[in-house]
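#struct-queue
[09:14] JT: dropping the first one here, sequence first, then the structure tokens:
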Amino acid sequence: MRIGIVSDIHANLEALEAVLAVLRGRGADHFANCGDIVGYGPDPGPCIDIVRGLHGWVVAGNHDYAVLGRTSAAGFNSAAGAAIAWTRKQLTANQQLFLRGLPLTSCCTPLVLVHGSPAAPAAWEYVFTLHDAEAQMDCYSESVCVVGHSHYPFAVERTAGRPARLITERSWELRPDAKYFVNAGSVGQPRDGDPRASCLLYDDRVRRMELLRVEYDVAAVQRKIRSAGLPEFLAVRLASGR
């Protein structure tokens, strides 16, 4: 089984379609999603429909819940808040029902999925540092936790008797004596300075994880954002990956 893992699509249809094409081309036959299907971008409904059609493992993100009013958007910046208000008007009843049914955590052994942190899934915590990631490792029993939320891809490995280390390789073997904390990055709004969509491919036959970056038509999404009347900032940031 090869699992394509995505997160933080944020209603970016062009990025999602490009990522799925690459993952399928690399043999992905199952899919997992670490939340935030909607928010920021111009195609929330179509993105929900595609994710629902994958019949994979999916967890809720804070933007998914904010659109439903299940979590507060009071702490969002003005652009994010405007996108949430706009998105609420775009979704059908069935699309809202799909978001409403998403759990905060899901497991597809050896992976556990959560949007922010396994320690407090409903708190939408950000995990940015090696130290923070290592602290999270005692909060799940599976060998690998995959998250999103920060839009910044990275991976941490901890083996028995050794301090945790940041994985610098783009492809790595999952050791049987190790535990891992992996951020999938963002499909629809990368923030690590690389505008290409980010995703993961996990091959359970050889226990190998790979981080992939995928080109997509940024300009087309920018045009859609502007046409929808969403904040200009949401269009501009896509070109810089910030």
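[09:21] JT: and here's the second one, same format:
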Amino acid sequence: MLSQAQNDLVTQTGPGTPAGRLLRSYWQPIATADEIPIGGAPVALKIMSEELVLFRDDKDRLGLIGLHCPHRGTDLSYGRVENGGLRCLYHGWLFDIHGACIDQPAEPEDKKFCHKVRHPAYPVQEYGGAIFAYMGEGKPPLIPEFTFLAAPEENRLCFRTIQDCNWLQALESSTDPAHTTYLHRLPVGFKSIRSGNDVRALRGIEPPAIDIEHTGYGMRIYALHNSPNGRKYLRVNNYVFPNLAAPTTSTRLGYQGRWYVPIDDTSHCSFEFFYRSEPLDKEAQRKFRTENVRADRRHIRQASNRYLQDRDEQKRNDSFTGMGRYFPAQDCFAIQTQGAIQDRTKEHLGSTDVVIIEARKALLKAIKDIESGGEAPGLVRDRTDNPFVDFVCEAAFVEDHEDGPSYCRRILGERAAAE
């Protein structure tokens, strides 16, 4: 468990907070690319308790600036895109993508003070189907070239969902291998639409043996299952500093990136990046999502309808939870019912919570290092000095003599030999 001070430290991410400073040291996804198409309307966003507006100017350049006009506070997301920027509807002040005020038409020509007005603005770039922002200090690092971002467009897909609880609850769920045996248990023979695999046939119903290895980018997470076919089945997942989980899709054919970006301290955006080594069936993925996620990007299953739990479905063993077969909605139930901010002073962690314990230690250390004048861990400053060179995220049957670390050593050795 954490003390109240420690829990506050890792959950509060607003401007000026230690954890907020850590998260702002990295590029963060803030929207999917399809939310801000060329010629589209500005989008109001809240990121780490800052109210912002994302827009494309009349040259299609992306900008991210403060939501409220510094003149009288009017909402700029309603503004006009014209003349090199975004113009406030109230008095016509015009702001470019850098936050500079470039026109004040209501002011007398000889008394304009554009040069004195500087509106908050952050660098943004489109990459891998998402819009990323850097809200930190100094020169931005590079966005890591994860395969789920850099792969051909037909091999990747990105969704954004809003969840009403603190960001850390979602991250801890995605890095926890033990919960999948129960929360996401499905009938034998059922193939997951999201992964295409009969998950139960691979993992069985016994909890896995869990181990970890610390890395330069965060942590490798090993879940070793006794498969129903009598073989050992290994999943290699990852925790990536500071708010990214990279779980496997039960094969060596692809994996997911799950980025949890705070909206404020009691809600967050869940970005799901899908990657496959072969083209995705995007129509099926989008249809499955539309059946389970509302137009406002929130799950259909919510506390207000008790997550549409069906006790008869539970009795038939159609699902362990009685909450359908859409895994993200099941995760949403688990994390939202912990409360807006989980009170970690009251929990009782067991041996299977080693990942949770070590990830919290790593977060607290990273926060402390930054507060002491150090740099955030795992930043990419130079492509030739890549902390992700030993990144492994896959699942496979392994030999009886192998465990997680020995499997990864073999895979990394095979990679080096092939180069």
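[09:30] RK: nice, looked through the second one.
[09:31] RK: Residues 146 and 166 are 25 Å apart (CA to CA).
[09:31] JT: good to know. The first strand starts at residue 27 and ends at 32.
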